[in-house]
Amino acid sequence: MQQSTSHLFHDNVRHAVNDDNLRVSLETMKTGFRFKRLAAIDRLPEFEDLREEGKALKDHVLAHLDLYLEAFEKKVIEQGGMVHWCANAAEAQQVVLDICRSVGARTVTKGKSMISEEIGLNDYLEKNGVQPIETDLGEYIIQLRHEAPSHIIAPAIHVRKEMVADAFRATHTHRPADRDLSEPRSLLDEAREELRDKFLAADVGITGANMLIAETGTSVIVTNEGNGDLTQLLPKVHVVLASLEKVVPTLNDASTVLRLLARSATGQEASTYVTFSSGPRRADDLDGPEQYHVILLDNGRSKMLGSEFQDMLRCIRCGACMNHCPVYGAIGGHAYGWVYPGPMGSVLTPALIGIENAAPLPNASTLCGRCESVCPMKIPLPRMLRAWREQEFERHLTPPRAVWALKVHTALASRLRLYRWATRLGAWALRIWGGRRGSFDHIPFAQDWTDSRTMAAPQYGRTFMDLYANRPNAHITNKER
Amino acid sequence: MDQSEISAPRPPVRVALFITCLADMFRPAVGFATVALLEQAGCEVVVPQGQTCCGQPQWNSGDRRGAQKLARAMITAFEQAEVDYVVAPSGSCIGMVKDWPQVFSDDAAWQQRATAIAEKSWELTSFLVDRLGWTQVQAHLEGIAAYHDSCTGKRKLGVAAQPRALLAGVAGLEVRDLSAPEECCGFGGTFCVKYGDISSRMVTDKAKDIIATGADTLLAGDVGCLLNMQGRLRRLGSPIKVRHVAEVLANMGDQPAIGEGE
């Protein structure tokens, strides 16, 4: 499985908020994705109905997951393909390596796949003598930079074009050193030329799957670069990496998901390519792979079924939650420390790698609710973030300082006379201390606030409760006893 | 006199003020403004003494027992007040009240009591506009105000049009929207001290957006968000005055703003 630094979230954040390049990239992302999504939804009056339909569809699938997965497997086998059920990352790595070795593969081309990231496939293949080559432009860039993706649909969103040029110069050393790489177009052309030969030479092509269709035994990928088609059609062997919850019953259902996915992700009505693959090349096919394998990965998902986190399995990986998340917008994807960033990651990561290894993630949210409001599958992300916090509290994973502060606050606020006395004293003392300025520049033990903000002093030096009680016509019920 | 022309006087709507802990200590003017507005709208206002904190810090930190302990005291206080409605000058705190039934998901008896209170609890501006149909604001303030929509009020309670409808009745005041009105200000209760550096980045973006509107006043419906944005605006050297929307609606816009001295 991919290594995690989620437990080091605080350090990661400190690094991220001081990264000027990252700030520029994230600003561009926010305006781009958000406005495009909004415009696409404005053009589709039935979008809200479609969300309900998508949610109902996924809930139905999750209630009958075994049936649809078995139906999918049966159909794939009928069409000459193979299905490999993998309980965890290690099993999936092994199956992929075995397939590569069975055909003597030296290089594999890869379409974009988050499951590949989840199981740490590239490192594993390299260690075992097989060279993986990412063919999605973003993935290609971060592979050259030896980085993980920072966004689930825009993996190199944190990389500015000058940094891409640097990576290309460092890697493509056979090209003229003085070539112009100042424009995105020239970078794209160079990547395309470099990848062309790799597509033709690859022995195995590995793609992810946006969906698996039970009715037809089909895997579906959506791409905008066409690299997915070349990855899965040209080599002798096509391997599909998919997690269990990707299955939908019918082609019609796939259409519902596709209509939601592209609009929520990039604001497109449909992605440039939507590719359906149903098994290996048939006798009368002109092209296509000789072998078709589907890896069905569990890796902790079946344990989410029937739990308070089941709704998370409706996720179709559009990225809308992170595109609209103010926390993601402030720190980017790498700070989250594992494969899936943003709100969906803060719910999914603890489920897959253990809450004890990802305890800061569910807390890194103001629970502002924007993620849920834009989620095409209406996943109640804030509710589940809070559910993780409750598990942390019960399992003593909450930082001791926070637990202590809560205990003191609860003790105070549940003793009415003590609370009135304490707020009275607090308002009075802070008012005197705050003086004529009316606010504090620095408060000991509250630097997290006062490092960037002043703190207003209480308005009057007396609480509302005291002031109101002194009014001649005060109407107070259940007075202090 | 024809007896039929005299209709029996309708008993006034009885409302309990949920002051909220931040307004109680930091901004009592918000409480007095709320009482004034409710009375102008014809309500009988009572202030239950037994109220302290709604338990949101506990609930959002995963401490269900702590949240239950505080919620029980609040529910009891509001029950004893024997009111038709509970109203608070905060979307966030009313959002928490609406969560009380979930807080007691393992306790049917308390869940029932929590639900009864939750169902009659309202955020101030939406209570005035949506429940009472009252918009007869009599207030005056010269200037331009930017309005910030607090997240819980907006997304959970649907508070957005109501404060603007009420502010339209303030003579002399022009109200402007922010360019990114959906964006959280970064307060988030305990979030702002647990993740101070992220919160600081968020409130910096918000402050820039507020300044860019050209407004001289910032208004919102939650004291927590207001304290956060005021603190950042002041640190950036901005002269923008920060107030709770209720203060302006109750014609108390001439008092020193949040964080201002005498």
Can you walk through the features of this model?
The complex is a heterodimer of chains A (481) and B (262). Chain A has 2 domains: 6-303, 3-Layer(aba) Sandwich (Rossmann fold); 401-469, no CATH class. Chain A is 49% helix and 11% strand. Chain A is built from 22 helices and 13 strands. In chain A, the strands form 3 sheets. A 6-stranded parallel beta sheet of chain A has the order 1-10-7-4-2-3, with helices on both faces. In chain A, strands 8-5-6-9 form a 4-stranded mixed beta sheet. In chain A, a hairpin with a 4-residue loop joins strand 5 and strand 6 (218-223). In chain A, helix 3 crosses helix 12, helix 9 packs across helix 10 (184-201) and helix 16 packs parallel to helix 18 (381-394). Chain A is elongated, with a radius of gyration of 27 Å. Chain B is α/β, with parallel strands linked by helices and 262 residues long. Chain B folds into 2 domains: 14-129, Rossmann fold, CATH 3.40.50; 136-249, Rossmann fold, CATH 3.40.50. Chain B is 48% helix and 16% strand. Chain B has 13 helices and 8 strands. Chain B has helices at 21-26, 28-40, 56-60, 64-80, 91-103, 108-119, 124-131, 151-157, 161-167, 191-194, 196-212, 223-235, 245-249, and strands at residues 14-17, 44-48, 85-88, 121-123, 139-147, 170-177, 217-220, 241-244. In chain B, strands 2-1-3-4 form a 4-stranded parallel beta sheet, with helices on both faces. In chain B, strand 7, helix 12 (223-235) and strand 8 form a beta-alpha-beta unit. The chains are: A alpha/beta (481), B alpha/beta (262). Chains A and B meet through helix 1, helix 15, helix 17, helix 18 and helix 19 of A and helix 1, helix 2, strand 2, helix 3 and helix 4 of B. Strand 13 (476-477) of chain A pairs parallel with strand 2 of chain B, so a sheet runs across the interface.
